[in-house]
Amino acid sequence: MILRGLRAGLLSARLTRGHGAAMHHQVAAPAGLLSLRGGGSPSTSKFGAPARASPEISLRATTGMSAAEVKPGNEVEVTEVQQEETKLPVHDPATKFRKDYKPTPFSVENVNLNFILNEDVTHVHSILSLKPNYQGSTPPPLKLDGRKDVKLLSLKVNGSDVNPSEYNVTEKDLTLAKLPPGPVTLNIVTEIKPQENSSLEGLYKSSGNFCTQCEAEGFRGITYFLDRPDVMATYQVRVEADKANYPVLLSNGNLKSQGDLEGGRHFALWEDPFPKPCYLFALVAGKLSMKERTFRTMSGKDVALRIFVQENNLGKVDHALESLVKAMKWDEETFGLEYDLNLFNIVAVDDFNMGAMENKSLNIFNSRLVLASPETATDLDYSRIEGVVGHEYFHNYTGNRVTCRDWFQLTLKEGLTVFRDQEFTSDLNSRPVKRIEDVMGLRVAQFPEDAGPMAHPIRPDSYIKMDNFYTMTVYEKGAEVVRLYNTLLGKEGFRKGMDLYFKRHDGHAVTCDDFLAAMADANNVDLSQLGKWYGQAGTPRLNVSTQYDAASQRYTLRMKQHTPPTPGQPNKEPLLIPVAVGLVGPDGKDIPLHLRAAPEANGTANGNTAQPTTVVLRLTEAEQEFVFEHVPAEPVPSILRGFSAPVRMTVEGQTDEHLQFLLANDSDEFNRWEAGQRLSRKLLLQLYDAASAAKVSSADKKALQSTLAGAGGVPDSLVKAFRAVLMEKGLDGSFKAMATTLPSGTELVDEIPEADPTLIYEVRNYVLRELAARLRPDLETILKETDSAPGDAYVFNAKECARRTLKQKAINMLSTLEEPSIVDMILQRFREATNMTDQVGALGALVEVPGEARSTALSEFFEKWKSEPLVILKWLGLQAMSNAPGNLALVRSLVDHPAFNINNPNNCYSLFLAFARSPVNFHAADGSGYAFMGDSVLRVDKINHQVAARMVSAFTQFRQYDKQRQGLMRAQLERIVATNGLSENVFEICTKSLAA
Ligand code: BES
Ligand code: ZN
């Protein structure tokens, strides 16, 4: 599965998104690991009981413990519980199924928590007010979730100790066999050790501060609870800690009181009036500085916005704060959604598995998604921060106020919120540029996932580890599915659906079906066929053939759809696919469209104009025909405008001339870009086939070059087409850069059976070099035109980003020529750069050119930035990703470098995940790259299961590669899965990938 992380930019350098879309010419990423979000996948039935070594582990049996005394004032006197060492075999991890959903026997009305934070242990006092939710008068047993590092100190029911025979504690849960009828109050005291918690789930310490991460199932690492999203309660939280070390004490909701205590300690009392699931609980305690701003909402309420960071970073929070204000305003204007408390906090922490977390009124962010200054952050960092701040803020309604009934519904909140953050970014910056970036991300990471062993529907049917299930599919394909409603219903119809969704479900935990019903009912339409997108995995294939009849002036589109089988789903049904179509006339202008048959039957006008030039056709059958009338001359069809559905499309009879025509003329910018991609993809695949057939070694560059030249090389028509785009006046620079970027290596791997990733990389480089050589004068002109004047300050906006992106594009292309004068020019730019975008752009180009400039620049960069951990991540990532021959030795040395910290997820992502993106070094034919990665997975798994699971995803797409590499990758998976003490996270990914 493809664990996400791409969006949030957990991978340090990346190829596909942001204003820097065209940043790294060298990128030709392999394996599905581009996208970590936590992959998840279905088809567990296939390996319900996977063969696994049955090592013996020691379990702490805590049954029969005596209760600890809880004194008033919440000081705990612990009577040490009897602990036995019991040997039990490891059980095969349990698979959870969506069909097994049952409400809990009790609901939790209120949660009262008291945290006594200390350096050695932390005590958590929890008072739960339960109400019966069962049928009949006999209370069923109540099972509360726990974790093996949570120690139960005390348990009371309605104020009285519980007889040991009436409860049972295991590594995973606490079961109360007999509860009295009626409402029940539970008092639970647990002991945890946040300072030893390297998993970064539950309560842990980062840079000396206490913080929490509870999604998906981290709350059970704090106290025993019904740790599932449909259990919604109000919370009061008291936090107590040493005042000197932890001056700031935060939790969700409103601050009710605070004060000093004896012994240099203090406390704060927080209350959250909105019922919420426990995954949205948060606590922070530490030494933090704060910057504040006020936002006045649409109804005139003042909200305090606060960002907490370590003091030395206070100068880097303005952009995040500004982004938050923009997000709040946008949600009011676009969806009428107003913030619902008087306080909104964001805390930045260095050690964080994901990008950021939407805890109610206390968002916690990976510091790399908060901190930015022109000197230390790139355009891409700035745009990610804007997007992620928006995303987490938007969750306040889509996720928090209306949450998920169970984790199978994750796309309900994530797909929808990604869609919302995409729209936010589109409205603030360039819509076509954002759309192209998102589709690039989808193709590079989600399509392969959907075609591989981990393919799963956006609403999966089963999982072992929920963390493994924050995938590109759930997020990005999920957002595409939300976009389908928007495309079919139009902006206003979509808004009506959203309004009804909140009206019906505010304060509740609901399902994807509820969302669909709200959209359908609000618009009085039947959307049931859209529902199939939730349950069916795999990327649909759309085939279009066309026919023009000059005599009748009719133009016919014949469409066929077919979804290939995926693990566990051999047969697929036709989906409802909205296909946005335009017809471009010989003059390059759109032809007004007259669709035969009533629009409501199979087509809707886009907008209300009488004569639309784009219509959205509704493909509902396996095969269907659409006829346009009054078409005066044979047009070139522009199909799937704006990428109106996440499908793979082939257009029969589409020639290079058609594509060149669309690249030059299409009024739909997405399809202009798409035409360029199709042109260059065709060429790359053709050249790869030639090289592959000639059996030239990818190491023999001369032979490869002559083979490729002999196969036709790069045609003039492509050079001309690219030149025309690059030089077109008034065209967005980011668009120019993207339109002249070749499809990534990963995308090509996805199109080639048993691909040789290194050969793909070399072929792609050949084309890049040819283009650079023949476009050189144009690139040099661009460089002159896009340079800033000396002394110009860095500004982050779409226009300036476009300028820098195009400049970087020119630098990257020129650098492929590997000429000393060009290298000198880039080194000089590297040294003189006044912002991180330009500096790291130059460094990225230099790193791919072997020679002295490479090492000089790397060491100068390190010396300059060694005290800035976020910049050091870039330094690690660029080196790890490099395709310089034999770079593994350098990567190995970086693991031992004093600047590298294996306990920090960002460090692991920047080093290991970036390494796995090198088609040359990760995919080295001798298997050395794979072995290094396998070793690293096992090492990291002992520290942090989620991070290790993302790393092991580098191997899951092994079937895409040639036989030799397949064998080597599979061998690593088999070695890993046979290792004793492996985490469930890594286990699930390995077994599913091997079993498919
Ligand atoms: N709710 C998630 C964060 C999360 C997911 C935390 C799983 C723990 C486990 C959050 O809203 C999210 O989706 N964050 C993304 C970034 C976002 C811009 C898509 C992330 O962290 O990658
Ligand atoms: Zn989210």
UniProtKB/TrEMBL annotation:
Span of domain Peptidase M1 membrane alanine aminopeptidase: 320-530
Domain Peptidase M1 alanyl aminopeptidase C-terminal residues, every copy: 656-995
Species the sequence originates in: Dunaliella salina (Green alga)
Protein name according to UniProt: Aminopeptidase N
Keywords: Aminopeptidase, Hydrolase, Metal-binding, Metalloprotease, Protease, Zinc
Superkingdom of source: Eukaryota
CDD domains noted in UniProt: M1_APN
NCBIfam families the record matches: pepN_proteo
SUPFAM superfamilies, per database record: Leukotriene A4 hydrolase N-terminal domain, Metalloproteases ('zincins'), catalytic domain
Transmembrane regions: none
Upper taxonomic lineage: Eukaryota, Viridiplantae, Chlorophyta, core chlorophytes, Chlorophyceae
Cofactor requirements of the protein: Zn(2+)
Alphabetized InterPro entries for the sequence: Aminopeptidase_N-like_N, Aminopeptidase_N-like_N_sf, PepN_Ig-like_sf, Peptidase_M1, Peptidase_M1_dom, Peptidase_M1_pepN, Peptidase_M1_pepN_C, Peptidase_M1_pepN_C_sf
Residue stretches making up the Peptidase M1 alanyl aminopeptidase Ig-like fold domain: 538-650
Domain spans labelled Aminopeptidase N-like N-terminal: 181-280
Signal peptide: none
Similarity comment text for this entry: Belongs to the peptidase M1 family.
